[in-house]
Amino acid sequence: MRLSGSLWRNIHARGVPSRYLANMAAQRPCHVTVLGEQYLTDHMTNISPTIVSKLPLKLHTQPSHPLSTLRGLIESHFPSYTHLSSLSPLVTPYQNFDLLSFPKDHPGRSVTDSYYVNKDLMLRTHTSAHEVEVFGRGETKWLLTADVYRRDEIDGSHYPVFHQTEGARIVSANSTGMKEIEEDNERLAAHLEQSSIEIEDVPHLSSTNPCQPAHDPKHTELIAKNLKLSLNSLMLHLFAGRVGATAQNPLKVRWIEATFPWTTPSFEVEVFFRGKWLEILGCGVIYQPTLDNANVSNKLGWAFGLGLERIAMVLYSIPDIRLFWSQDPRFLSQFKQGEITTFKPYSKYPACFKDVSFWLPEGQTLHENDFCDLVRDVAGDVVEDVKLIDDFTHPKTNRKSLCYRINYRSMDRSLSNDEANSLNAQVVSYLRDRFRVEIR
Ligand code: FA5
Ligand code: MG
């Protein structure tokens, strides 16, 4: 479901939600201000004021912030790599998708999944969006940390902005390059043998995770092995000793086959923590057309992309992903650059839930991500989660009714019932304006 054009066209970056709605009609021609620049809007525009306000923050570069310390830890594990962390989040759909061989009908391209400034400019949905550009600059071993944006549901482990570190290594596709990889594999294997880490592996190649036509399977095996050894040793560097990775209770890492349009073979890595397998990264042997796009056809190599919040929540025992955005001194003062310490929760304030139940206009649907963005525009980080609790289609009229339960809870103070009511009333009023729903 798309937001109707006239209301959605004039989003102003700095306006608070109520002001921005009021300003909408007055602002012509249609534009949006993002990171100090004005852009024309069009039928694809769906970037919201809440999201625009996050763009300058760059938590991964804020001294003492847990995400900045984690970035530092990862970078220190790859000292000979180029470290990048200041690339603009604005990319073209061509960079984010086409250069990485995403099919034209991939769901990630849709306005319900990604944020668009207009049809030609979007917020990167992953750090892989910069692969071709960085390889094209001649970098062969590099890490890139950045904020990434995806339209998503609202709960304790999902936030529409999160952070990823991309890592990549390419070598010459000849005997010199392969020798370099073989030597590195020996060094890394020896290092890992001495450590307590339990690794559940999958074959480097299989019929469901095949070698690329352009590659010699022996080369692919060596590259995939180098990728796995490099990442297993990173896991050890990050987790060992911190989550009880001892001889009696070793760190458990599990490799799984995966699929990404720009890598083959591809894998995901999960780490066992507090009784659960936690997916922390995706990776693979880079698809040769990706390297061709960067004018480095004579190379081959691997790339990975890991989620910083997922790892930081584990390492610091941070229970809610919204906390990373907190400006509360009770949160920020707990951390020092370079140190991993256990987060001490301050009191959890009471939650207050409100149900919003409505009929959609005939023939209209409402995507959950559109509803969640609307709620975030009104309530910001005061919304803890949003759940669809009823979805009903009238058998005779075919009209659809939805009921969402919104859980309001501030992380820094007690929220009064009046405040929650007033936020909820605003949600209801936006729903009426933007989607012409009939409140039940
Ligand atoms: C990717 O984003 C690929 N770009 C990774 C990649 C890079 C593959 C290079 C191959 C080569 P994925 O969507 O699975 O893949 O996300 C990667 C990691 O980001 C996940 O494993 C997870 O740790 C983190 N992540 C993904 N979605 C979220 C989210 N909504 N909130 C927090 N972390 C997330
Ligand atoms: Mg994944």
Automatic annotation (TrEMBL):
Domain (Aminoacyl-transfer RNA synthetases class-II family profile): residue spans on this chain: 71-345
One function term, GO molecular function aspect: phenylalanine-tRNA ligase activity
The reaction(s) this protein catalyses: tRNA(Phe) + L-phenylalanine + ATP = L-phenylalanyl-tRNA(Phe) + AMP + diphosphate + H(+)
Subcellular location as annotated: Mitochondrion matrix
GO biological process: phenylalanyl-tRNA aminoacylation
Keyword Signal: no
GO cellular component: mitochondrial matrix
Name of a matching Pfam family: tRNA-synt_2d
Gene3D superfamilies: Bira Bifunctional Protein, Domain 2, Ferrodoxin-fold anticodon-binding domain
Presence of keyword Nucleus: no
Highest taxon in the source lineage: Eukaryota
Domain FDX-ACB: 347-440
Keywords: Aminoacyl-tRNA synthetase, ATP-binding, Ligase, Mitochondrion, Nucleotide-binding, Protein biosynthesis, Transit peptide
EC number: 6.1.1.20
Broad class of enzyme this protein falls into: ligase
Its biological purpose: Is responsible for the charging of tRNA(Phe) with phenylalanine in mitochondrial translation.
Sequence similarity: Belongs to the class-II aminoacyl-tRNA synthetase family.
Name the record gives this protein: Phenylalanine--tRNA ligase, mitochondrial
Species this chain originates from: Suillus fuscotomentosus
Source species taxonomy: Eukaryota, Fungi, Dikarya, Basidiomycota, Agaricomycotina
